[in-house]
Amino acid sequence: MGSVAGSSLTTGSNNIDIGNNGVAAESNTIRIGKSGTQSATFIAGISVSAITGTAVVVNSNGRLGVASSSQRFKDEIKPMEKASEGVLALRPVTFRYKPEVDPERAPQFGLVAEEVEKVNPALVTRDAQGKVFTVRYEAVNAMLLNEFLKEHRTVQELKSTAAKQEATIAQQQKDFRATIAQLTARIEEQDSKIQKVNDQVELSRPAPQMVDNNQ
Fold this sequence. Notes:
This protein is of the alpha+beta class. The protein contains 2 helices and 8 strands; from the N terminus they run ββββββαββα. The strands form 4 sheets. A two-stranded parallel sheet has the order 1-2. The chain has a two-stranded antiparallel sheet with strand order 3-4. It is rod-shaped, with a radius of gyration of 43 Å.
């Protein structure tokens, strides 16, 4: 549909082209409008329709899709570890879009893409001219989760260390009390032995003799 729509199609099939020349030999593709010609898209019935599902993303070529989390679409998978530490340097801001972007000027919360690029270029996307355009918030969320989990593990390790230290202190106090009890028992035993010796010494002493001065 539209002027020269589908004119570039050759051997492909199951394509829908509306105001787009299409691409030779492609199949099963929907193309609407031309890059560099259309600069805004309005589709009724979306903003007022509540549904559940997966968020749709768009790349710099205008292709729509979803960011899959399935392992079968990924390779070189490895723990994030310290790669997420830069996210803590990001500066969240409040702002309003310019009137030509949002006539209602509703309050917004987010990040400034140019600032994010300085922290980690992988966290931004670019437009067709290569200019920084927006922030990959889903990636930022994953990095924040990694930092949260690292902090949680640190807290758990500290709790575990504290618990071990408390147990060690409790055992040391128990051992100390046991040692004191043993020493006290030994002292009492020694005192008893000394008393017995003293008693025996007293018994072994000769009785005092009386001297008759009249003899």
